[in-house]
């Protein structure tokens, strides 16, 4: 999905290469997170392509430090995250992937938690208004609602409202993570005492430590990361 979305836009400018083109989705991947926000599954995908409406939705523009220590730009349609999200993305293709995308992501989450310690990040939202510093397990910037094979990481996010939902999960010890998994994976995410919800059109994240990022599930680099919303930047066919 991420590669296809980036093919819709001119990399330097973000302008559409074919203004009349629309994105259609056949949900054949292991995660299937973005199609959940659209109400598309394997049973209705062909009918949606035939009869669904092409509507404009938002995209995110991410600028980040790549593994080559140079700054890169990438567009995304669903979720960008950092902390455990970046670590999990690097481990998500494992022995459980052929069986269940959700199980593969859950295994990767537990493995990443065991190998990755506490990270402190600084967040500046909307040009520095409302700056925050947290020891985090994960931070997700969502246009869509799900990542990690069905985790409701931004359960209130809307794909066409011109803003991101920003979910911060503060650092969790092992017993807190295990006990909280049913809540952290559900639409009741924000009932957990260590979660926070913010709304922003621009997000800047920095850290003095190495904090990996993922963009639409792709492990692409690390902080610093700057994300801005591009309202109505792409047409997508959905029910």
Question: Would you kindly provide a written description of the structure presented here, covering whatever features stand out?
Answer:
With about 240 residues, the protein is α+β, with helices and mostly antiparallel strands. The chain has one domain: Tumour Suppressor Smad4. Helices cover about 20% and strands about 35% of the residues. The protein has 6 helices and 10 strands, in the order H-H-H-E-E-E-H-H-E-E-E-H-E-E-E-E. Strands 3-5-4-8-10-9 form a 6-stranded antiparallel β-barrel. A hairpin with a 5-residue loop joins strand 4 (about 120-125) and strand 5. Helix 4 packs across helix 5. The protein is globular. The model has no long low-confidence stretch (mean pLDDT about 90).
| Beta strand count | 10
The major pleated sheet works out as: 6 strands, antiparallel, barrel
Estimated helix fraction: 10-25%
Within the CATH hierarchy, at the fold level, what is the topology?
Tumour Suppressor Smad4
Helix/strand class: alpha+beta
The global form is: globular
The Cα radius of gyration reads: 17 Å
How many domain modules? 1
Number of helices: 6
Quaternary structure = single chain
CATH class: Mainly Beta
Residues in β-strands, percent: 35-45%
Order of helices and strands: HHHEEEHHEEEHEEEE
Distance between the termini: 18 Å
Assigned CATH architecture = Sandwich
Largest sheet, spatial ordering of strands:
3-5-4-8-10-9
Q: Uncertain spans, ≥5 residues at pLDDT below 50?
A: none
């Amino acid at each position: 999905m991420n590669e296809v979305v980036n093919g819709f836009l001119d990399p330097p400018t973000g302008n559409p290469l074919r203004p009349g083109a629309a994105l259609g989705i056949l949900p054949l991947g292991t995660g299937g997170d973005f199609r959940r926000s659209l109400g598309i599954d394997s049973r209705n995908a062909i009918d949606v392509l035939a009869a669904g409406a092409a509507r404009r939705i938002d995209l995110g523009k991410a600028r980040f430090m790549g593994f080559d220590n140079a700054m890169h730009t990438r567009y995304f349609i669903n979720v960008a995250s950092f902390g455990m999200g970046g670590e999990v993305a690097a481990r998500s293709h494992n022995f459980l992937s052929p069986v269940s995308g959700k199980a593969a992501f859950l295994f990767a989450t537990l493995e990443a938690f065991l190998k990755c310690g506490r990270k402190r990040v600084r967040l500046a939202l909307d040009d520095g208004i409302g700056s925050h510093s947290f020891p985090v397990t994960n931070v997700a910037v969502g246009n869509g609602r799900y990542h990690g094979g069905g985790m409701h990481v931004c359960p209130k996010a809307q794909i066409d409202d011109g803003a991101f939902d920003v979910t911060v999960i503060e650092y969790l010890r092992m017993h807190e993570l295990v006990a909280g998994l049913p809540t952290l994976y559900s639409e009741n995410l924000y009932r957990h005492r260590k979660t926070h919800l913010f709304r922003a059109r621009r997000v800047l994240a920095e850290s003095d430590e190495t904090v990996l990022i993922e963009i639409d599930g792709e492990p692409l680099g690390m902080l610093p990361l700057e994300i801005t919303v591009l309202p109505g930047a792409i047409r997508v066919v959905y029910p």
